[in-house]
Amino acid sequence: MNTRKLLISIILLSLVGGATAGATQVLQTWKGKEVRIFVNNEEIAEGILIEGRTFVPVRPLSDTLQASIQVDKDDIHIYKPNVHLFLFSGDRTAMKPFGNVYQGRYEFFVFAQVDNLKTQVHSIRTSVIDPRGQTVEAQIFRFTNESREEFWYTTAPIKLDFKLIGEYKVRFSMKSTEESEYELLSEKSIVSMKKD
After folding, report:
1. What confidence tens digit (pLDDT) does each residue in 135-181 have?
2. Do the domain assignments include residue 37?
3. Which of 18, 64, 145, 168 makes an SS bond possible with 13, Cβ 3.0 to 4.6 Å?
4. Contact 44/65 with Cβ under 8 angstroms?
């Protein structure tokens, strides 16, 4: 391994969350420049620009990419399944689309259609986050068979009081093993409006 590859490896390790000591010296040696990374005008991480190449930490991109990121000693694997979320009210025989609401109590379901899942799945979590960032509902479903490339899933009824005005987020997350963390794969918004 030549010196350049070794130094770039040190940078990548520091970005992934390993040792940060020496990263500043590496930046100076290779005339690197720290850069901020924005997605839809929101800063999500910092990276390093060296000779026209940008090195970005992978972990902070997980939610933005809505992907599962798995790091082992040799490789980084990014899994991006197709996840389509539908919100509906009524029962399963007479579904009605569910979306923006006026303040008050509602009952609705979340339906997820997932395909192109190229990694194992331990469990999925469907959660609702209020405009303050608080989780106001969460349902977890654990799979008995961890190998599946596609599945459909419908939550139990979600009975929620939309007390606050603003954007509620419905998040669909997955974890691949019991020890891993949930990673966001899809998100929908429900806007709660003031009743006149």
Report:
1. 999 999 998 876 678 899 999 999 999 999 999 999 999 998 899 89
2. yes
3. 18
4. no
- Tell whether 187 and 93 lie within a shared domain: yes
Is residue 43 located within the same domain as residue 124?
Answer: no
* CA dist 158 → 6, 37, 58, 85, 133 (Å): 52, 36, 33, 15, 18
Q: Are 32 and 26 in contact (CB under 8 A)?
A: yes
Token code pair at residue 160: 């929620």
Cα–Cα separations (whole angstroms), residue 3 to 25, 29, 61, 74, 78: 14, 11, 28, 19, 28
Q: Which residue has the tokens 């490339």?
A: 149
Domain residue limits at 114: 81-193
- 95 and 171 inside one domain: yes
Amino acid at the residue 152 = W
Measured in whole angstroms, the distance separating CA 34 from the mean position of its chain's CA atoms is 25
For the question of whether the overall pTM of this predicted structure is more than 0.90, the answer is no
Whether 189 and 95 map to the same domain: the answer is yes
